[in-house]
Amino acid sequence: MSRLTVDLNCDMGESFGAYAIGQDEALLDLVTSANIACGLHAGDPQVMQKTVKMALLKNVAIGAHPGLPDLAGFGRREIKISPDEAYALVVYQIGALWGFIQAEGGTLHHVKPHGALYNMAAVNATLAEAIAEAVYKVNPNLILYGLAQSELIKAGDKLGLKTAHEVFADRSYRPDGTLTPRQHPQAHITNPEVAAQQVLNMVQTGKVQTTDQQEITLITDTICIHGDGPLAVTFAKRIKEVLLQAGVVLKAI
């Protein structure tokens, strides 16, 4: 019987200027892939360079994490953009991170949109297609990370990109498979044990319980931990422990 294999990813490189966000170095010891901010929702050139270097040193797969141009809102506020704008934003940000990766002798592994851009693309087919096309045009060998079974995954599959269905350790779900909006009181999972059990259940059974106590099916290729959370390292350690104890192999896609 084959063993279950899953990727554990983390959003990082989100510090900028005088503002330090997240514990990237500690998290890179725990995850198998990293989504590095590209300077629009967070990050700056020096932070991008430093994070790329750390990820390569620790043999963690590197992904571009393009977001909306909203530094003050951390890319988590919806901005109405056209498909053409989304395409250009994604190409621009992939290119910025790719330059640093090339300079350090590494390889870009995947692309995962950030925040509001990610959630918009999960349900808006036209926007999803523009983002998938941007990834494909830059490099058709890149892996597109998106919300499990979302419009973004469908768009990537349609173009022939390799896609990764992503689930979340620290967020709750609605019955349609989308994430509960952040302003909702039940949106965030703050207990690492609860998060670890949610992850283990998704990996082993392909199911998750929603906020209204329904059980829905989700494909689980990669698990996200938000690097900006105050307990991100604690969450990552516990989730990794629980998965390894269950015999799950942690490996980049």
UniProtKB/TrEMBL annotation:
UniProt GO molecular function: 5-oxoprolinase (ATP-hydrolyzing) activity; ATP binding
A UniProt-annotated Pfam family: LamB_YcsF
Enzymatic class: hydrolase
GO BP: carbohydrate metabolic process
Keyword annotations: ATP-binding, Hydrolase, Nucleotide-binding
Catalytic activity: 5-oxo-L-proline + ATP + 2 H2O = L-glutamate + ADP + phosphate + H(+)
UniProt keyword annotation of Repeat present: no
Keyword Plastid in record: no
Assembly with partners or alone: Forms a complex composed of PxpA, PxpB and PxpC.
Function, in words: Catalyzes the cleavage of 5-oxoproline to form L-glutamate coupled to the hydrolysis of ATP to ADP and inorganic phosphate.
Family that this chain belongs to: Belongs to the LamB/PxpA family.
Protein name: 5-oxoprolinase subunit A
Organism: Adhaeribacter rhizoryzae
Gene (UniProt): pxpA
